[in-house]
Amino acid sequence: MEDLPHVPHWHRGRMVLVGDSAHATSPSSGQGASLAAESAVELARALRDLPHSQAFAAYERARRARVERVIAQAARTNSGKAAGAVGRVFRDALLPLFARLATPEKMAWQYDHRIHWDAAVAA
Q1: pLDDT per position as a tens digit, 71-80
Q2: Taking the model in full, what pTM does it have?
Q3: What are the contacts of 80-89 at 24+ separation with CB within 8 A?
């Protein structure tokens, strides 16, 4: 699997990118549609509270760290899928241990994300 290039800016003038156009993630993350929906809600919040010139920048600030963390996690997952002969042996031997360590609490950052709609967006 290949990673898509990093998009340095998600907005210019009155144009803004949302979803995969701004932050495409690998299908192995299972987060593409979720990230797009989250971004749409965050953009709506920003546009509700700020003029578009400030709203677009606030939306990007609110989303970029989370999106890039999900993309990085997907890249780590993908790199384990193309292991060589020796790597496959280690991966298969250690996979049960990693599965036990991946508790719901440790994965909450990715799967239990909350957006507080009523909170005001700052410029």
Answers
A1: 888 887 777 6
A2: 0.69
A3: 81/1, 81/28
